[in-house]
Write a structure and sequence with these properties.
- The protein has 20 helices and 32 strands.
- The chain is an alpha/beta fold.
- Among the domains are: 101 residues, Beta-Lactamase, CATH 3.30.450; 206 residues, Rossmann fold; 81 residues, 3-Layer(aba) Sandwich (Rossmann fold); 57 residues, no CATH class.
- The chain binds adenosine-5'-triphosphate.
- The site of adenosine-5'-triphosphate has 19 residues, from helix 7.
Amino acid sequence: MRALNSHVLLIDLHYHPHVPTSTLAYFRNSHFISSLRRSPRSRIRCSASPEIRRPSDRFYGSTPSTSTSRPEDLNLFLELLPLKMRRKLYCHREIGGLIEVVMDLGRKPLARFPSGDWVISEQPIVHEDLRHAISKVGEFADDNRSGIDRSLHRISAIRNRKMQIIGLTCRVGRAVGGSAEIIRDLVEDGGSILVIGPPGVGKTTLIREIARMLADEFRKRVVIVDTSNEIGGDGDVPHAGIGTARRMQVPNVNMQHNVMIEAVENHMPETIIIDEIGTELEALAASTIAQRGVQLVGTAHGMTIENIIKNPYLQNLVGGIESVTLGDEEARKRKVQKTILERKGPPTFTCAVEMISKTECRVHHRLDATVDAILAGKPPLFEVRQWDDSANDLAKYAPVPEENLGETSDLTNNNIMSSDIESGKDDKDHPRTWSTKWSTGGSVIERSSPMQVYTNKILEADLLQVAKVMGLEEVIDVTDDIGTADAILASSSEIRQNPWIRGVAKFHHIPVFVIKSNTMAQLVKAVRMILGLESFGPKTSKPLNDCLDIEIEDDEPKRKPSLEEIDALEEVRLAIEYIVIPGGEAVELLPRRSEIIALQLELVESYQLAAEKSGTEQNPRLQILPLRLNTKKPSKTTSVARKKTSPTSVSSTGGSGNGTSVTRLPILPE
Ligand SMILES: Nc1ncnc2c1ncn2[C@@H]1O[C@H](COP(=O)(O)OP(=O)(O)OP(=O)(O)O)[C@@H](O)[C@H]1O
């Protein structure tokens, strides 16, 4: 059951004038930035019900969402500081958003706020200040971290070579209710979620709230593997911020992976929450857990998925990578180099969230697709989400991939959630809400349902099957009613024979997508073009009186001639250039398959010579005659064939009158 059952879901697709500044900063130097700037983006806004907002408090008011930490939690934190420093800090207007206090021996103490650092006192820290702070916290574990009993604060120590503490980083921990609203749909979906982001961006706070949400709202059996007691707080009774989730402490950091496995084996969890997966063993333990069908929510340090892919210890989290050497044929088909990188196996996590700030993130709905795209050197598709605390509003931006930009001007505002489409994801929160606008002749028809395609002499079942394989069955459908169709899909022969299709298309302002053959490859391309996932290419005829004709070209690379073909054509060339033309004699060629004979005939005709078929039905062959053809220009295919066989150029040195003789060629060198 959803806790925020009064959520309002507004689907609002339009050009959004602003991209959040911090998002832009994050994407600087990235090719995504251009697509974010240039592309029309779809925006989905989800407003949460007002109940989740509580009256803001000076201590918690400046934070996004709502802190569920108690005021005494902050008092516990401030007690770490000597009285004078405490008083000064307490008066700071941003005290509610305090992130950390840094105390280094012999240096001025610093307070870190979201707005920047602030010097608490001009008096440098002395041993006594450090001793005071240390006396208020528990023992430091072997990761040099400690906490304050029943609070979420984290105290990390810096030691000198004699192992004496000479510096402290004291981080304010707080449970922030509502901080997981930004990815509520992912949490609810039940897939495993990898959260990555730079230090201090709010990963621990986010997964703490996810743990609470899953345990309290979705009634799941949640076990937190709490390596440095950061999620559930210090002490044996966990902090209220984790709700009814259970917490397992870890005696020392090197045992984190053991405790992860132990959690699955002993406590029958449905979800395991783990902060900071950082070693190969932990990554392996995570993948073991995922294989046992347990939902996993974990964090790792890194800015982007690419960082994780490049990290040899964490690679396993995204399925691992391996280099593969392709055969010539395969490499040509895929249009890639022979040695490529590929994902080794399925990633441990279903989706990934790259945290940009406490209120912004990038969601990769399908981690496998993202990893594959990165390995193939293509931009991965993701969704940018931004939580607006003041409006209690979630905005989702889906950048259109770069390759889809630029050429779709005739079908403007073809706004589709491309990342979701690509991922084949069926968002339960907003099913069947693809909104498409076709702009035709100045009038815009708006619709909020799957694209309706009218097919002509193309099996509907074929189209639907292809859409299904592509994971796009939710966004494309077929219709019998051409008047309500968004697009027409027809074969080129049909279009030639039945010009009425164009007439109707023109009348209803519907684009016509024309395929040459009913192959899967052409249908895949057609589906992508209809949905605006692929540009139309140079062959698109511009709108003729509002009717847009889009010819779908074959992606197949032009086939190289086979050895047999080269051999047969070379035979023709030699016969013509050595015997037929200089000697004026007919030449009978070797028996060949009829397709090859057709090619030979084309080449003969390109020399403007006549030929006739001879031989038996089983062994057909061609005879080149020393007779000149009157007209016939060399065809395109023939000229290609000629190039392949390196023909010698014909010199026009004269010719005989009655059309039966040929121009003689100079004698060729031996
Ligand atoms: N949504 C939020 N609203 C207000 N404060 C937040 C929010 N998320 C995190 N914080 C604060 O930001 C600071 C850093 O948060 P957190 O410890 O969760 O970051 P982190 O990414 O886990 O850091 P690290 O990687 O160093 O462990 C903490 O003081 C925390 O209270």
